[in-house]
Amino acid sequence: MIHSEALAAARAAYDIESACIQEMKDYFDDKAFSQAVELLAAAPRIGASGCGHSGIVCQHFAHLMCCIERPARFISPAEAVHGASGFLQKGDVMLLASRGGKTGELLPIGEICKAKGVSIITVTENLDSPLAKMADVVLKQYVNRETDKYNLQGTTSTTALCVIFHALQAALIEETGYQAGQFALIHPGGAVGERLNHRAL
Q1: DSSP state, 9?
Q2: Beta-bridge mates of residue 95
Q3: Contact in structure between 49 and 58 (CB atoms under 8 Å)
Q4: Which DSSP letter does residue 129 get?
Q5: How does DSSP classify residue 94?
Q6: Taking each helix axis from N to C terminus, what angle separates 156-176 and 52-67, rounded to the nearest 10 degrees?
Q7: Distance CA 189, CA 194 (A)
Q8: How many Å apart are CA 4 and CA 112, to the nearest integer?
């Protein structure tokens, strides 16, 4: 059996993250969120970028968009400034995620998007940050604290970002009228595909 301190830290992680999700609802901005959904619903293509844990969650966001047939891809910050930004054209949307809103690798991507007429959605805790100021829409990320005792690891902040992305997908399903039958066509694999396509028969 592991030390009692370790078990206590593990149990506390549940409390910290669940509290974050509940408290984050107090920062939900109907207007900003609606604007973000409208941009994503109208965009021919969607890009997403972030560094570290934010980048990993942005990969999840791009997949969430593809699952509801909003063409999207994660664009690595390193590749974005070496030609990958060519994926985005005027009228598209780029989502940039940075808790502090100052991630240096993302700032050039924002400038490229502004020059190309690509709308920017920034998700950040710092509404006065450089990435927030260059955005067309800013979604507030809230984090009470990370789950480790040093308050350093990207844990609760990752969960908070995921929840925002899940909320965007849920709203887009309603806004675009996306149907389960559409998902059945593009998701024939796995247990979900079997269940969906069995119902469709």
Answers
A1: H
A2: 48, 121
A3: yes
A4: S
A5: E
A6: 20
A7: 7
A8: 51
